[in-house]
Amino acid sequence: MRHSCIIDSEGLEQFDLSDSSIRFGHLRYQEMATENLVCLNDDIWLHKHAAYAFLDMSNAMHRDGVAPVIIRNGYRSYKRQARTFEYYRVKKELGTVKTLTRVALPGHSEHHTGFAVDIRLPKQAANGRLSRSDSYKWLKSHAHKYGFSESYKKTISLV
Questions:
Q1: pLDDT digits (tens, 9 = 90+) for 71-100
Q2: Which residues contact 10 (CB under 8 A, 6 or more apart)?
Q3: Phi then psi for 156, rounded to 5 degrees?
Q4: CB atoms within 10 A of CB 10
Q5: Pairing of strands 22-23, 37-39
Q6: What are 106-155's pLDDT values in tens digits?
Q7: Which run of H or of E encompasses 27?
Q8: Which of 16, 36, 48, 78 is deepest in the core (most CB within 10 A)?
Q9: Are 101 and 25 in contact (CB under 8 A)?
Q10: Angle at the Cα of 120 (from 114 to 126), degrees rounded to 5?
Q11: Coil, helix or strand for 57?
């Protein structure tokens, strides 16, 4: 399915925008078929295999005495990704180039697959940053056993 999205080109003249499967460090992804998604709560949907793996991982974190992380974002449709991009670009007034360091272009988000999650600490455990927490240390050592890895670090270079 081919989508079109109008995104302001302000500041993009410095980048090669020739037809490529990679845009600003993000591969192109197809949207997951909705019949393969399961609902974890009101607005968090994941591919069923990712959901079960995440629940297993959360249980293991709890057993090991670290605060299980909470999913902030899961599956995003192309349209929702476009709205997210525009929210940061316009409402947060980041502009196009700075937004590209935080949000993938529609069609280039791992969230389209239903396998990507953005996580946070529970409020009661959030006495600091996730990256400095015992939960993060646990994830660095164990998440791969459940099929998870850290895709994007805080610093992303634009390609």
A1: 999 999 999 999 999 999 899 989 888 888
A2: 95, 96, 97
A3: -125, 130
A4: 10
A5: unpaired
A6: 888 899 999 999 999 988 766 668 888 999 999 999 999 999 998 866 54
A7: strand 26-27
A8: 78
A9: no
A10: 170
A11: helix
